[in-house]
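Hello K.,

You asked for the raw outputs rather than the summary table, so here they are, unedited. I folded two proteins back to back in the same session to keep the settings identical. This is the first:
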Amino acid sequence: MVDFLNSTEFYVYATVVAAAIVALLARPSSRGEARQHLLAGDLSNNSNCQWGSVNIAQPSISIQVRDDGAVVLTRHGLEGVSISGAVSLAITVIGFDITIEERIVPGNNIDDPIDTATFVLDFLAPDRYHLKYNSSATSRFTTTTLLVRPEFNKKITLTN
C-alpha cells in the first residue's frame, strides 16, 4: 500500500481527480446572472375614468415591440390611482426568464384618476423570453411568452 502512495500512478489519479473537481466548481450556472431594472410608469387616463365610476378597462397588460427593438409594456385597468400617485415595475431578468413585480402608490384622491401606465423596456436583446407579471397590490398575475421582434403585439388579461 505504501508503494502505491509513492507511485507515479497515484499522482496521475490524484491530478485527474483534482482537475475534475476544479472543472465542476468552475462550471458556469445554466441560467446566467440576474439583472435588475426599476422603471417608473408614464401615467395617463385613456378611458376618461372618474372617481367612483366603474372602470371600463379590464386589468390587463399589452406588449408591443417597436421597430428599434424596445418593448412598450402598457398596464390597463388601474383603479384607485391618481395622477399624484405612481406605478413602477421591478424587473428581474435571468437568462431568458423575466419576472416583473408591479408596485403601486395610490396618490391623493382629490387629484385626477388614472387608469393606464406605460413603460419602455429598452434593455432586452432580440429573442424569446418567458415573462411573469405579478401585481401583489391587486392580487393579479399573468404569464406569457414574449418574442422581442418588431411588430410583435400581444394583450393579456391579468387573473386573480
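The second followed immediately with the same parameters:
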Amino acid sequence: MTFRRLGALALLGALLSSVLPACSATANVGDVWMSLDEDGGRRRSVFFTDSAAITCIAEVGVGRQDVTLEILIRQIRGAAVGTDDFEPMDQVVLARDLRPDITKDGPALIAVTMVPSSIDEEGRLKEDQEAPFSPGSYICEVMLDGVMQKSAAFNIDYPPCPTALILAGTPCLGFYTFDTECPAGGASGQPQPTCVCSGKDWVCR
C-alpha cells in the first residue's frame, strides 16, 4: 500500500514537472532596467532630484491571453526634505497593473514612468514638473500573475550644482540640501559670485 502511494506521488510529480514549465514559458520577463526615456535607450542606475522623468523598462514575452503584469516602484531609503540624513523605509510610490498583448515578433518593452509630483491643497498627489524627486534608494519590481520575476535597483541623488545660471529667488530646497553653495554662473562657471540654498530659494551674493 505504501509502495503504491509513493509510486502514485512520483508519477504525479513527473506530470507536474512536465506541465508547469510549459505553462510558465508562455509568459516571461527577460530583463528589467531603468532609463531616462520610455524607449529604454538611456540606461541609468543613478538619477537626480531635478530629472524630468524616471522610467522602469520591462522586457516581456507573452504567449497567452489574460496575463497580469504588475510593476511597482518601491522606495527603500529616504531623507527629510533638504537633508541627506537617509533612513530605511518601505513605501510603494508607483504601481501599475497591466494586461499586455500577446507578443508575436519577439519580446515587447513595457515602460512605466515616474514623474515629479507635489501635494495639492486637498492633500492629493498631482503631477508637478516644477517639483523635485525625493532622493533615496528605490527598486522597480516586476511580477507576472502575482509572482515576482525580476527587479532593478536605482538611486535618486542630489546633483552637485545647477548646470546653468542660478537666478536669485528661484526654488532650490528639495532639489538640493540646506546650505548648498554653488557658483552663480552654474557648475562649470566662474567660482565667484556664489549662491546658497537658504530656506526655499537661492540667495546670491
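Helices lie at 2-24.

Happy to rerun anything if the numbers look odd on your end.

Regards,
P.
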